[in-house]
From TrEMBL, chain A:
Keywords: Electron transport, Heme, Iron, Membrane, Metal-binding, Mitochondrion, Mitochondrion inner membrane, Transit peptide, Transmembrane, Transmembrane helix, Transport, Tricarboxylic acid cycle. This is Succinate dehydrogenase [ubiquinone] cytochrome b small subunit. It is a multi-pass membrane protein. Membrane-anchoring subunit of succinate dehydrogenase (SDH) that is involved in complex II of the mitochondrial electron transport chain and is responsible for transferring electrons from succinate to ubiquinone (coenzyme Q). SDH also oxidizes malate to the non-canonical enol form of oxaloacetate, enol-oxaloacetate. Enol-oxaloacetate, which is a potent inhibitor of the succinate dehydrogenase activity, is further isomerized into keto-oxaloacetate. It holds the Pfam family CybS. It comes from Amphilophus citrinellus (Midas cichlid).
UniProtKB/TrEMBL annotation, chain B:
The keyword DNA damage does not apply. GO terms for molecular function: electron transfer activity; metal ion binding. GO terms for cellular component: membrane; mitochondrion. It is found in: Membrane. The heme is bound between the two transmembrane subunits. GO terms for biological process: mitochondrial electron transport, succinate to ubiquinone; tricarboxylic acid cycle. It comes from Amphilophus citrinellus (Midas cichlid). Heme binds at residue 102. It is a multi-pass membrane protein. PANTHER family: SUCCINATE DEHYDROGENASE CYTOCHROME B560 SUBUNIT (PTHR10978), SUCCINATE DEHYDROGENASE CYTOCHROME B560 SUBUNIT, MITOCHONDRIAL (PTHR10978:SF5). This is Succinate dehydrogenase cytochrome b560 subunit, mitochondrial. The chain crosses the membrane at residues 50-71, 77-99.
Length: 158, 143
């Protein structure tokens, strides 16, 4: 075990950096005789087993992150469009983008503050229901009433 | 000598939270003792305005589904209450400010996502710019 911890870390930078070394993220195991011969090969295997988690930017989580930013930029662009050329296309696009942006935003709030598998599942189901109702209501409003752009225009005219 | 860990970060975090709940551990003071800074306040404002705006949109959508009358009908109803210019302006400011703040600060966030503006003086200058623009925009919208 001592062989895995570089003494220089302790001497030069104090104890704290030790906690961030990946060599501490392994559990000590009863040593089979053959592993004592080639520690560098074992280290290579440990690091490569984590390669799955360290792979490029194509995991579901990082794709979601990128999608969130793309949607934000899209929503930003919809503002001027809604102002300068209002109509049903932008009304429905706004309904979709607004709902999804809010849904993903509240999803991050749930991730940050809700803990425990059951509570997380409940919160996300509730959120999904809320977002579904929101999108339905907005589309209903666009179809049966004046639509989002006109509604904002009318509200501000008073 | 050692074996790689088989659990994910998510599993480890859940184990941590479960243990805290199981042992009934109290939460260490954090926001009650740490000195507040402008970036901290702006960050929670961004979240607060986001939650508020989403709540308002959802409330509007649910009202559209539930209420029998049309939008112009309810608008006229509000008009007939003769609220007065000051309160009307205040209401407009109250709607415009969360939207402006969240939008401008959202742009600031997107700059961070592109790796720009992380130096501490930049965090503060862009922060004050967002606040200033939000107030100006909302005041303009309220007139």
């Amino acid at each position: 075990m001592a062989a895995l911890i570089r003494l220089s870390s302790v001497c030069r930078r104090g104890v704290k950096p030790l906690f961030y070394q990946s060599t501490l993220l392994v559990r000590p195991l009863a040593v089979p005789h053959k592993h004592q011969e080639q520690p560098y090969l074992l280290t290579a295997r440990i690091h490569s087993s984590q390669a799955l988690y360290a792979s490029g930017s194509n995991s579901a989580a990082s794709l979601h992150w990128t999608a969130e930013r793309v949607l934000s930029i899209l929503l930003l662009a919809m503002g001027p469009v809604a102002y300068f050329s209002p109509g049903p296309v932008i009304d429905y696009s706004l309904a979709a983008a607004l709902t999804l942006h809010g849904h993903w935003g509240l999803g991050q709030v749930v991730t940050d503050y809700v803990h425990g598998d059951t509570k997380i599942k409940l919160a996300n189901v509730g959120l999904f229901l809320l977002s579904t109702i929101t999108f339905t209501g907005l589309c209903y409003f666009n179809y049966n009433d004046v639509g989002i752009c006109k509604a904002v225009a009318l509200l501000w005219s008073k | 000598i050692a074996a790689p860990m088989g659990s994910t970060a998510k599993e480890e975090m859940n184990k941590f939270w479960d243990k805290n709940v199981r042992l009934n551990r109290p939460m260490s003071p954090h926001i009650t003792i740490y000195k507040w800074s402008v970036p901290m306040m702006m960050s929670i404002m961004h979240r607060g305005t986001g939650i508020g705006l989403t709540g308002a949109v959802s409330a509007f959508a649910m009202a559209a589904l539930v209420l029998p009358g049309s939008y112009p009908y309810y608008l006229d109803l509000i008009h007939s209450l003769s609220i007065g210019p000051f309160l009307t302006g205040l209401a407009k400011f109250g709607i415009a400010f969360p939207l402006s703040y969240h939008t401008y600060n959202g742009i600031r966030h997107l700059c961070w996502d592109f790796g720009k503006g992380f130096k501490i003086p930049e965090v503060y200058s862009t922060g004050y710019t967002v606040i200033g623009l939000s107030v100006l925009t909302s005041r303009g919208a309220a007139m």
